[in-house]
Design brief:
Blueprint lengths: L2 H9 L1 H22 L7 H18 L8
């Protein structure tokens, strides 16, 4: 994939809509952690934090030119 193709993909309406949905889900997970509510267990907390990190990675994906 070229940088131009990546840019076209990022600017595509469908991509923008999917990214918006991913951001909403990510924000819901973050709200769950910061709202003062409790999670079932430490493993639930770790899972939620991991999900947030995964969404952050996807939402902030950038083009990386391979040599």
């Amino acid at each position: 994939m070229t940088k131009e193709e990546f840019s076209q993909w990022r600017e595509n309406r469908t991509t923008q809509e999917v990214m918006g949905i991913l951001e909403e889900v990510r924000n819901a997970y973050a709200h769950r952690l910061t709202s003062g509510g409790t999670l079932e267990s430490l493993s639930d907390t770790a899972r939620v934090v991991g999900n947030i990190e995964a969404f952050d990675y996807l939402l902030n994906i950038n083009f990386e030119d391979e040599p």
